[in-house]
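Lay summary

Proteins are chains of building blocks that fold into shapes. Our project writes down both the chain and a compact code for its shape. Here are two examples, one after the other.
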Amino acid sequence: MLDQFVEMTRQIIRDDGFEDYLPTLVLPGRQEIFVLETDLAGDDHEQPAREFALGHLSGAEDYLLAFKKDRWHFKVVGRIDGRLQERVCQV
């Protein structure tokens, strides 16, 4: 599931560009997607993205979260089948 989310994120970046990419949270169990629609300073959006995700999570539910890490990378974090995973990916 993490690999699919990475590829989905890359496709969105290819289509829309990376400069204005916003943190994106997917909750597979609820079949919901949330985007943090706000102006974020700098290129490292990890802290606001994680805070955003925490505000939407219910207990130990599975999730996928993608956000900018720097000008050339995005990071994907998630809980899949109760197991935490993280990966930094090149744009």
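And here is the second example, written the same way.
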Amino acid sequence: MLVTVNALPLAVGVLLSCSTTLGEISVYGRLTLGIAWALTQLVVLVAGTWWYENRAASSFAPAAATTAASRSVGGAW
């Protein structure tokens, strides 16, 4: 999922880096399209990583065989 979310911004970033005229387009003041896209790509990467980490941490559940109750019921290893 993380790769899928970051694939499009990466592809657009590669296209922008191939054309200096597109990257030099002024968006706001001295902010150019290339810099704005790089910042957007960074935000997408950080947000996607944060979301992935939270989802992975919340879905973690220990296996039944590793709990203290199952060890005492099942005997010694």
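What can we say about the second shape? The first strand starts at residue 26 and ends at 28.
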